Amino acid sequence: MLNKSRAARAPDSALPMPAHPFVLGEASVNYPPASLEFWFDFCSNYSYLSAMRIEHAAAQCGVAVHWRPFLLGPIFQSFGWNNSPFVLQKQKGAYVWKDMQRQCAKYGLPWRQPTVFPRLATLPMKVAAAHADAAWVGRYCRAFMTKNFALDEDINTAAQVAQVLGELGLDAGALVDAALVGAGRNRLRQATAQAQARGIFGAPSFIVQGEMFWGNDRLDDALAHAARQRATPATA
Predict the structure, then answer these.
(1) Domains of the chain (ranges, CATH numbers)
(2) What is the pTM of this model?
(3) Are 148 and 42 in contact (CB under 8 A)?
(4) Least confident of 90-94, 117-121, 156-160
């Protein structure tokens, strides 16, 4: 039931055009050269690997990280998939769970295969999207990634969101309200529409000055590319 609802989002034609500053048309995105957009979904296991290490790795390279949550479901649906390819393709799924054991051991990350995959995470992701540029968003996202892929918890609850925000010393009620009413309520849909418009087809994806790198195994390449942009003199 949860798996189907996770993927059965509105088709891409129904997604609204973006209005939030970070989801303007690509030509309007004007991040500093030494920066990277990190596009991810809380249900993406490979995004977990990147989310848990990206800020430390980026700091070592002198690169700023912009957290960009979006929903994979509508993008998969546009390909004609009603679920994650890791569920639709049995052999690929079996490989992925073994690979996750190896990768988590490699990075020293806790791992527990989720009993529900992909797990619904609309509420916590709406909060992340509404506050994507907040200083605390990285810690917030890592907390939910840990709950999903290390603790195997249901994360799509108001109680979980309140707990995480409270542990960060934040006003949970005000932040959730800002994500569910007014301009904030559509930001996750807008971000998903922008991801699709920019050609993002999976998570994690990293964008540096309009150039995309896909997959956790391309994080280091993306960071290196961002660091080189800082060192490259601008041309007239």
Answers:
(1) 2-6+32-231 (3.40.30.10)
(2) 0.84
(3) yes
(4) 90-94
